[in-house]
Amino acid sequence: MDRNAEFRRSKAQFLGKADLSRKGSVDEDVVDIVQLLNTRDQFFTTSSCSGRILLLDGGVNGFEVQKQNCCWLLVTHKPCIKDDVIAALKKANGDAILKFEPFVLHVQCRQLKDAQLLHSAAVDSGFRNSGITVGKKGKTMMAVRSTHSLEVPLSHKGKLMVTEEYIDFLLNIANQKMEENKKRIERFYNCLQHALERETVTHSHPKIKEKNNSSYTRKKKGNPEKACGKCMTEENNEEPEHDDDDPGISINIFPEEY
Prior knowledge:
Elements: H1 3-15, H2 31-38, E1 43-49, E2 52-58, E3 71-76, H3 82-89, E4 95-101, E5 104-109, H4 112-124, E6 131-134, E7 140-144, E8 150-153, E9 155-156, E10 159-160, H5 164-204, H6 224-228, E11 251-253
Parallel strand pairs: 6-11
Antiparallel strand pairs: 1-5, 2-3, 2-4, 4-8, 5-7, 6-7, 9-10
Helix pairs in contact: 4-5
C-alpha cells in the first residue's frame, strides 16, 4: 500500500471512531478549524481542546497532579467567576489546583510540507510552541500549542491556603488568558484558511510563482500580520502577544517503531 493510500485509510478509520473525550464532542470555538482541516485530503485532526479553566483535586502527596488520577471539581471553556470556584473548592479533600490550559490541536498530515504549512499558520497566529513530530515510518503529526498557561495550588489536604481575594485575582488573570486564547484561535483560523486557499490556487496554476513559496525557514520572525497577508480581520488585526519561547519549527524523529 502506498503512502497516500495508507493515509486515506488511517483518516477514514480515525474519523469513523466515536469521540472518547470527556466532553464527547468538539469544542464550539474550534469546530470551524476542525471541519476545515478534516475536509482537506492532506489532514485529519486527532484531538483538540479550545482552552479551559480547570479546578482539580489531586492526592495529598504533593502538587504533581495527574489529571487521569484526580477529581475534576470544575471545568469550563468560558470565563469563570469566583463564586463557582469557591463552591467547587468545598468538595476538595486533597490538593486543589487551579489551571488554565490554552488551545491545543493535534493533526496528522499526509506529508511534511503539509505539516509545515500548518506550523507556519500557527506560529504567525501566536502559537509559538507548535511543533512537528515525524515517526520512523513517516507518520507526520503537527501539534498547535502555546505556553500562556497557568497553574496555581489553592488548597492542601482539603484546607484552603489562599484568600478569596487572591482567588479573584487569579481568575482575572485566567479569564484574560482565555480571551487572548480565543483571539489567537480566530487568527489561526483566518491564517489557515488563507494559506489553504493560496495553496489551492498555486496547485491549480503551476506557473504561478508566489513570493513566499520558499520563505519557510527554521526561524520565523517579523510582523505576524505581514506573514499572514490578508488573513486577519479588521476587528482582530492587533499583533499577537507572542510567548518568549523560540518560534522555530521543531521536528522530532521517534527512535522506535511508530
